[in-house]
Amino acid sequence: MSIAKMSLAVLAAVAACGSLLSSVSAAPATASYHIYDGVRPEQTSCNIPFSDISRISAYANLGGDLKCGDCVRITNTATKASVVVQIVDRGGAIFDMSKQAFDSIDTDKQGYARGRLDIDYVKVACGGGGGGGSAPAPQPKPQPQPTPRPRPVPTRRQPALRSSGAQLEEPVSGV
């Protein structure tokens, strides 16, 4: 193979890699917050277990580029603070983050004042992702608990019967 053809092949490979990299680059969007306190997983669109509401979000275009259970690194474009959240619901804004996740990247409090943040987001693997936040940890399966043994109920001695002068017969033993 000639050097020119080899150089052309290498250049084509580099260009292909560049187009792959651009497909995972951060996308601009907006984020608001949602109060998830007291919300159970079965009350969300995804119905997937979550125990740490500080790292969850809803996504408006669920089923498009992101699906239930996907993890996303969301970065505040103004402050560069970021957090990794798991998609557990469908929301009205592009991202409806838990209040705790929203507050963790709203470091200058301008998002709270405006009611939304300008953000970039990129899908990351759950359980990692870096960037200032940690992805939601996999949820442990509940272990069966042993059935508690019933405790014996203490009995109280009944007070002796008092008669009004009548004699009670003693039980005859050894008959």
UniProtKB/TrEMBL annotation:
<feature type="signal peptide">
    <location>
        <begin position="1"/>
        <end position="26"/>
    </location>
</feature>
<protein>
    <recommendedName>
        <fullName>Barwin domain-containing protein</fullName>
    </recommendedName>
</protein>
<feature type="region of interest" description="Disordered">
    <location>
        <begin position="129"/>
        <end position="175"/>
    </location>
</feature>
<dbReference type="GO" id="GO:0004540">
    <property type="term" value="F:RNA nuclease activity"/>
</dbReference>
<feature type="domain" description="Barwin">
    <location>
        <begin position="68"/>
        <end position="128"/>
    </location>
</feature>
<dbReference type="InterPro" id="IPR001153">
    <property type="entry name" value="Barwin_dom"/>
</dbReference>
<feature type="compositionally biased region" description="Pro residues">
    <location>
        <begin position="137"/>
        <end position="153"/>
    </location>
</feature>
<dbReference type="InterPro" id="IPR044301">
    <property type="entry name" value="PR4"/>
</dbReference>
<dbReference type="InterPro" id="IPR036908">
    <property type="entry name" value="RlpA-like_sf"/>
</dbReference>
<keyword id="KW-0732">Signal</keyword>
<keyword id="KW-1015">Disulfide bond</keyword>
<dbReference type="Pfam" id="PF00967">
    <property type="entry name" value="Barwin"/>
</dbReference>
<dbReference type="GO" id="GO:0050832">
    <property type="term" value="P:defense response to fungus"/>
</dbReference>
<dbReference type="GO" id="GO:0042742">
    <property type="term" value="P:defense response to bacterium"/>
</dbReference>
